[in-house]
Amino acid sequence: MMNREIRAALVWVGGTAIVTLGGILAFKLGYIDRDTLMRVLFGINGLMFAWYGNRLPKTFVSDLRVRQVQRVSAWCQVLGGLVYAGLWAFAPIPVATWGGLGALLVGSGVALGYCLSLREA
Questions:
Q1: Which of 47, 82, 96, 105 is the most buried (most CB within 10 A)?
Q2: What is the C-alpha separation between 89 and 83, in angstroms, rounded?
């Protein structure tokens, strides 16, 4: 029997592939422009990042510090992914590119900083 996590990951891969192929087809047929295609494809990446962040604290670990790190890392990943997807949906493309990258880097930096602060305590 297939693990639930693996099944969910395969659904994400399949869904992303379908949206990508559908977007490329719509672009080639002239239904959408290049900017819309980019926004859809990059926006899906942000949503996937947020979804995996949401899954992170649902894995059970007995150590209290590891659970704290999971929660903080998950919040950083979810918020960074949602900001990334939101920027790709609504902001101009140069702002979405750099702002989205910045959101993911800030989230990763906060999570890393939190991990390092626990190590010193």
A1: 96
A2: 10
